[in-house]
Design brief:
Blueprint lengths: L2 E8 L11 H5 L4 E5 L7 H14 L2 E5 L17 H22 L3 E4 L3 H9 L1 H14 L4 E5 L3 H8 L4 E6 L23 H14 L1 E3 L5 E3 L4 E3 L7 H14 L3 E2 L2 H5 L1
């Protein structure tokens, strides 16, 4: 039986402003990428999500990002190496403390937004993030874009890497994600997303935005939790995968 991990970006509300339905997503996913306060999230809200993840047995990862609350971490930035290493350590450490209080622990790191897309191909910023992860806990797994140069770079540096594909994002022919500024970059139809992911899992392929088929070897599938159809997409996707004979299981369990 094929097995796949489903992950989602959670804990991104801030004070009285909610972002997505974290509780509903935690009922569906097997891994949760939890904001660490730099691009989104506040301590009390993050702690609430961590407690619910612990209750449901969902694996927890640090969703680190640029220091960019106003831009939700989606603006390109150029921090110095010292800043990016320090920011990486700081965010993971903060989440580790909250996770301990919630009765769980941080198992992996998944960068967010612009940082995620930058380090996929920028070896310098990638090295800084890798250095930060290794400094605080070299046993943490890095979740990275399937097929991107950072996968080999991180593995050569000694990190375990889990490759990720995106359920609801369009792909370019080179395997990169279509910019959110372009039409069609986000797919909103739950059934279309589910059928697309089932093919990703069974055939390791995805159709790019220009119609080209692209090879895609991923161990985890991301469902964005901040889109209007997030819960419907997650529910339909889980049902479709299970009906197709795919086991849903955290990659953390698959690695152990």
């Amino acid at each position: 039986m094929a097995a796949i991990d489903l992950n989602s970006d959670l804990g991104e509300g801030f004070g009285p402003w909610p972002m997505g339905d974290d509780a509903a997503m935690l009922a569906t996913v097997t891994s949760a990428n939890i904001a660490c306060g730099f691009h989104a999230g506040d301590p009390s809200g993050i702690l609430t999500v961590l407690r619910e993840a612990a209750r449901r047995g969902v694996a927890v990862g640090a969703h680190i990002g640029y220091r960019d609350l106003v831009g939700f971490g989606r603006r390109n930035m150029d921090p110095s190496s010292a800043e990016l290493v320090g920011d990486t350590i700081y965010q993971i450490g903060a989440l580790q403390g909250l996770a301990k209080a919630a009765g769980t622990r941080v198992r992996y790191v998944k960068p967010h937004g612009a940082l995620y897309n930058t380090i996929a191909h920028d070896a310098c910023q990638a090295a800084d993030v890798i250095e930060g992860i290794k400094a605080i806990d070299p046993n943490l797994v890095l979740m990275a874009l399937a097929g991107a140069p950072i996968v080999a770079q991180a593995r050569e540096a000694g990190l375990t890497v889990v490759c990720e594909a995106f359920a609801d994002r369009a792909y370019n022919v080179d395997g990169s994600l279509v910019s959110r500024r372009l039409a069609g970059s986000v797919i909103h139809d739950p059934q279309a997303v589910a059928e697309r992911v089932l093919r990703m899992v069974n055939e390791q392929r995805v159709v790019a935005i220009d119609g080209t088929e692209v090879a895609l070897d991923a161990q985890s599938i991301c469902i964005h939790g901040d889109t209007p159809a997030a819960v419907a997409i997650a529910s339909t996707l889980r049902q479709t995968l299970e009906a197709g004979g795919v086991e849903l299981k955290s990659f953390v369990d698959m690695l152990s």
